[in-house]
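Q: Got a minute? One more chain.
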Amino acid sequence: MTSSRRLAIDVLVEVAGGSRANAALAAALGASDLDERDRAFTTELVFGTLRMQRACDWLAEPFVRRPLEVEVRAALRIGVHQLVHLRTPAHAAVSATVDAAPRRARTLVNAVLRRVAERSSDPAGILWPDDATRLSYPDWVLDEVTQTHGRDEGLAALESMNRPQEAVRRPDGYRWGRASEWVVEEVACGGLVVDLCAAPGGKATALAGQVMAIELDVGRARLLAETILRTGHGGRVHPVVADGALPPLPHGSADAVLIDAPCSGLGALGRRPDARWRVRPADVARLAGLQRRLVEGALGLLPPDGRLVYSACTMTTAETLAIDAWLAERHPRLVPEPLVGAHWRPWGRGGLVLPHDHGTDGMAVFRYRLAA
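A: Always. Here it is, folded:
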């Protein structure tokens, strides 16, 4: 039978090679014979280890005397994660991880994990060098979040994203986060809605009425189409492969447009743990430029009194408040509307939830009406 730890190591190696964690894990579990309990454990090993990767490496580093192969480092990381963050008894975590490690490196893995177990027998007593290492984020992410939201709120948000988020299962079977549900509630339109960045399809299939679901990337458009069919919304949600910044629809043809913008995803680093090691500071400015182009594309679709909802699962100023300020200056006819949900913190002319507010993604949303 497949070992959960062996499977987790294999997935971590794939992620280190450039694969996305969600896709790599789903494919590995789909090909395995693991039961439901072991699948859940494998998921925690993969996602938890990716979240806490920096902390795990720091704890193991003093006992590693040579460069490590990717597979061996993955084995050490899942072992340290079990010892320190899952509080798995040392004898079980060490022996089972050694069995799953590459045979050529089992002596090393055994020795390092035993030393880590001794050093971290009381996790509360570990003297971390800084908060970024303790919470396992790149320095720039911690700096960005704490400078934007204050130290206490920022650290609370980052700590929250190190805990698994509970997904909500909809009546149509789709699983998503509550913050995504709250964004859809802000659209509230009885006519044609255009979702300009629709993949993987969670929001598009939750919107009421007729929906044009636009996606530029062909692979993601395929995933969007699969979601529409699987959830039974094929009669009213229509996938279109196109550039959301240049939507192929008549001027003024939409009653509402949703832009769930491509963003740095700093509010979703719990759900997408590998992204914290992939996103770079330069991505924030690049994505803010794309977000502006998408808004320009959306405005051409709106008639007078049409609604625009802009959301982003991030907590940066550049992708939220700065976009709103740019809109206020460049498009004064786009008038902010009050948000319908009480869960949003005031955030400029829109709203924000931080991850620790309700155990969701961090999400910003702005709701506008195009004045006549």
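A: Residues 281-299 form the longest helix (19 residues).
Q: Perfect, thanks.
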